[in-house]
Write a structure and sequence with these properties.
Structural class of chain A: mainly alpha
Strand content of chain A: under 5%
Radius of gyration of chain A: 21 Å
Oligomer: heterodimer
Strand order of the largest sheet of chain B: 6-7-8-3-9-10
Strand order of the largest sheet of chain A: 1-2
Number of helices of chain A: 13
Largest sheet of chain A: 2 strands, antiparallel
Helix content of chain B: 25-40%
Structural class of chain B: alpha/beta
Number of strands of chain A: 2
Shape of chain B: globular
Distance between the termini of chain A: 12 Å
Strand content of chain B: 25-35%
């Protein structure tokens, strides 16, 4: 009798999870159709490439954030990490004459260090990363403005700009290639390696993971380091695309990334969610803002829509869980 | 005494795919303690939900004090004086004991703090317990929280009090206090419907017992006229000749030795565990048993003393160290510490050995499937698929998964902390068989248990802890419940003051 019920509920669960997967897909397709009808400029090669290029850095940063979120943490500081890594790299190149490859390396290392700092503070102070990064976010902001001397570093070298603006073979944007590589690498790590399983396990139940012999401290540091690394890559892409560096570039990315993660099924509590869901989440937001701009919607109206999308996503998630729970009780 | 206060006639309740209650008729008398007994899934919880109005029956009638109803709502059930105390308490942690008791009452008036606290102490006095009514509930131990919960129900003039596994979080002496309270309530004419897996309690406290199986009420008996063998056979539908399997004697080889281990609330603990032995670790909750297990497992550091494994002094700094030395823990709180509930069965089984079955970081899925199949067959884990989420399995099967993952790590010394807590009788038997099989294969088990029958039935030897120290050791021929209790409470004076 028990087996029948659990088989049933697993069937229901599969159906629901399929519906959930398709839901995010349908939303994206629906939005694309909607904007194609509303604006003649939407479904053009240029515009679609544009969306991809615009969203590539968001995807890369969100992938980093996903590691932290799946492990049960949160990182609010990624926006200012982008800002700090970006201006530091630019300053090294433009003001201190450091060769670009070395400057990029420094930028990536800095990103890893910022992440490690978040992780270390959270482990050491035994405080949830949400609170820690709320603090470090301001710290990074301060450092970023000091490094940039509150100025805009203009005319980044062409090789730097290539990261955000370049095309491989003249057709494929370099940033999109970086994005695809990032997504594939993250998907591989999370789904196929034991490290990935540790990350999910820790998000699912940290104490059980610890008692299973997993060094949870090390995993926590690792996910933050990985997050910092990807965020640094995102910073290079974003600043490369901008062509100039200012401390005000980057902040805000954290909210887009978090919203995308929720949309994609990465739960606040950790332990679940897939990278491809996150990618869909980013593109839903990307298509939405691009489309809204094309049809001439005001900036503030756009804010309202984006906020509502987040609420809908979270509400849908909770609704599903409750339904699932109800079905299981029966 | 024999006046019927609540009776259910021909109640049927079906969920898609399952008939949870099948033509159930049972009646409860005023002022009796009526035990409901049955394995998990027998229909006890559905019955409670129908009585408390949380679920509506498909057919049948409910009569309360002579009036007939076809269904109740939670609100209406309360008005009729039906209160349920669930395993998870419904208390507001951040409010005081008194505030919790009177929560939701005295609407429209200012709350008179002093009056409320006086009324609360009066109730506590009736129960013969000392609780500071102004103490925050979150600062009370779970035994006292439960008393607050009961007080809350009684002050609402509950005529029918349903208690679902009330002793699960309690220690032995706290159980006595609880029983005292139940007797007080009973003498005031309250009907108590008492659900428990522990047979010995049912004999101690209940007047009548109703056995349920597969959604049916099998029989209602006077407790005084039945015995445990009859109840078990009614419950499982077959006769169990012996509850605890016989085992050959264990060897003299010492596999684990503790010398003056101190830390995590324990002081100066020395003991030896032999190959093939089940060493019972008895004591009250808070005596430092789980704390000792956590230290042995490296989850909490040792302050001083030494641990010898197979005669070798061993430093265990982390659970990973413990596993590497062949020490495994089956923790007390299965759901919080043992299971990754949202992950699959096979994910859970291989979690301890993931690194070993990975090549270049990549988990070998074939090996994963091999290991999890082997162990799920060996432990007879009932699951539709190894990819099923652990959450969807029964408590007994979840426990088997926890044991499987511990064994998969090739452990020789197993620390079982409350091996059968919250597990129904049938699955319990399986766990006992399994533990016997394991020691037969040369594993050694340190078993922490608050279940007296289990402790006396399964152990080869018992060590009793009291307030973080060893207070005695009993060989098999000295085993008796009285002896264990005596040693466990050897310095209990202080605890009684706390109560």
């Amino acid at each position: 009798m028990n087996e029948i019920t659990s088989a049933r509920s697993s069937l229901v669960e599969t159906l629901l999870s399929l519906l959930r997967k398709y839901a995010i897909f349908f939303i994206l397709v629906g939005l694309i159709l909607l904007f194609s009808i509303l604006s003649p400029y939407f479904l053009t090669w240029t515009n679609l490439t544009n969306i991809f290029v615009q969203q590539s850095y968001v995807v890369i940063a969100a992938v980093g954030l996903a590691f932290v979120m799946i492990s049960g943490g949160m990182d609010l500081s990624i926006g200012y990490q982008i800002s700090l890594v970006g201006v530091t790299t630019a300053a090294l190149v433009k003001w201190y004459g450091v060769p670009l490859p070395l400057a990029i390396l420094c930028g990536l290392l800095l990103g890893i260090c910022l992440g490690l700092f978040n992780g270390y503070a959270s482990v050491r102070l035994k405080v949830h990363p949400l609170i820690i990064t709320l603090g470090t976010m301001t710290v990074f902001q301060g450092i970023s403005y000091i490094v940039s001397k509150q100025s805009v570093i203009l005319n980044l070298p062409p090789a730097f700009k290539y990261l955000g603006q370049g095309y491989v073979f003249g057709v494929i944007p370099f940033s999109v290639i970086l994005m695809v590589v990032t997504v594939l690498a993250a998907g591989f790590i999370l789904n196929y390696t034991y490290f990935g399983r540790y990350v999910y396990s820790m998000g699912g139940n940290e104490e059980a993971a610890r008692l299973a012999g997993i060094n949870t401290t090390r995993i926590k540091l690792a996910v933050f380091a990985i997050c910092g690394f990807f965020v640094a890559v995102a910073a290079l892409v974003l600043f490369g695309r901008a062509g100039s560096a200012a401390s005000s570039t980057g902040p805000g990315t954290e909210f887009t990334a978090i919203t995308a993660a929720f949309l994609g099924g990465i739960s606040f509590k950790g332990g679940e969610g897939k990278i491809w869901g996150l990618v869909f989440g980013v593109f839903i937001l990307g298509v939405l803002s691009n489309g809204m701009q094309l049809i001439g919607m005001g900036t503030y109206a756009q804010y309202i829509i984006r906020g509502l999308v987040l609420l809908l996503a979270v509400g849908f998630d909770e609704y599903q869980k409750k339904r699932l729970l109800k079905l299981k009780q029966k | 005494m024999s006046k019927e206060i609540l009776s259910l006639q021909n109640i049927t309740k079906a969920y898609p795919g399952v008939t949870a209650l099948d033509d159930v008729s049972v009646s409860f008398r005023k002022g009796e303690v009526h035990a409901l007994l049955g394995e998990n899934g027998a229909g006890k919880s559905t019955l409670i939900k129908i009585i408390s109005g949380a679920e509506k029956p498909d057919s049948g009638t409910i009569s309360i004090r002579g009036a007939e109803y076809s269904e109740l709502s939670p609100h209406f059930a309360r008005e009729l004086g039906i209160e349920v105390i669930y395993q998870e308490f419904n208390l507001v942690d951040t409010l005081s004991a008194a505030e919790n008791i009177f929560l939701g009452e005295r609407r429209g008036r200012l709350v008179n703090q002093r009056e409320m606290e006086q009324a609360a102490s009066l109730t506590f006095d009736q129960f013969g317990v000392v609780i500071d009514p102004s103490a925050l509930v979150r600062n009370l131990p779970s035994s006292l929280q439960q008393i607050v919960e009961i007080a809350k129900a009684i002050t609402k003039n509950a005529g029918i009090l349903i208690m679902d596994e009330p002793t699960a979080p309690l220690t032995m002496s706290e159980v006595d206090t609880l029983f005292q309270i139940i007797r007080t309530a009973k003498s005031q004419g309250v009907t108590i419907i008492y659900i428990s897996h522990r047979l010995e309690e049912i004999f101690q406290i209940s007047d009548r017992v109703t056995v349920m199986r597969d959604g049916k009420c099998i029989e209602s008996l006077l407790t005084a006229e039945t015995n445990r063998d009859q109840l078990i056979s009614l419950m499982v539908g077959r006769t169990l000749n012996e509850v605890f399997p016989e085992r050959p004697q264990c060897s003299d080889e010492v596999v684990l030795e503790l010398k003056n281990v101190t830390g995590n609330g324990d002081t100066d603990i020395s003991l030896q565990l032999h190959r093939g032995e089940i060493l019972g670790l008895a004591g009250l909750v808070g005596a430092g048993r789980s704390e000792l297990a956590k230290m042995l497992y490296g989850a909490v550091p040792l302050d001083s003393g030494s641990i010898l494994i197979n005669g070798q002094e061993t430093r265990i700094h982390s659970p990973a160290d413990a596993l590497a030395h062949g020490v495994g823990l089956i923790p007390e709180n299965r759901k919080e510490e043992g299971c990754l509930l949202n992950m699959s069965v096979s994910w859970n089984i291989v979690i301890n050995v993931l690194k070993k079955i990975s090549r270049w970081l990549v988990v070998d899925r074939k090996e994963e499937a091999g290991i999890s199949t082997t162990y799920s067959e060996r432990l007879n884990i009932k699951t539709p698929s190894l990819l099923q989420r652990l959450r969807n399995l029964s408590g007994g099967n979840q426990q088997k998964v926890v044991i499987a993952k511990t064994l998969a790590a090739n452990t020789q010394i197993l620390l079982f902390d409350e091996p059968t807590r919250g597990i129904d009788v049938g699955a319990r038997q399986e766990i006992y068989q399994l533990m016997s099989k394991l020691v037969g294969e040369g594993h050694s088990i340190l078993m922490i248990s608050s279940d007296m029958e289990e402790l006396l039935g399964m152990s080869d030897r018992i060590i009793v802890l009291s307030e973080g120290r060893v207070s005695g050791e009993l060989e098999k021929n000295e085993f008796s419940q009285e002896r264990v209790l005596e040693l466990a409470s050897s310095s209990e004076a202080r605890q009684e003051v706390a109560l």
